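To whoever is on call:

I kicked off a structure prediction for a single chain this morning and the downstream step that reads the tokens threw a length-mismatch warning. I double-checked the sequence; it's 132 residues and nothing unusual in it as far as I can see. Pasting both halves so you can look.
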Amino acid sequence: MTTAENKTNFYIDDADLYYEIILSKGKGYLTKKAESYFIIVAENVNKKLRPRYKDDEEMMDCFQHGLMIMLENWKSFNEKRYGKALPYITEIFKRGATDGSNQIKNKKYNQKDSVKFISIERSNEGKGLHNI
């Protein structure tokens, strides 16, 4: 499949993706064809996640974060355990996009405005805050 075909054809055969991931793992780097497959997967999944986002900017931020997570974790695909690559790669993208959304919406990270309690007795490795 050429790059021109990738832009018009949004269908990926799981066997092709599986083969490209195995080939990439053997080479030690992601092949161009595998990269284009990952982008197609990310675009297709992101279309389905569109209602979750408040605007296009948030959608693109989450798309980029999901794609980054997918490109960082593709080597963890275990061909001995999984017979299909598409569901695995799709799930990595979805979790990455959700993580990006949580960062934007401040659900998980940077909770500076929340109240934090420090125990005087348990701080400083159980020695208390004020050692005399």
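Update from on-call: the warning came from a stale cache, not from the record. Cleared it. Sanity check on the structure: Residues 3-104 form one domain.
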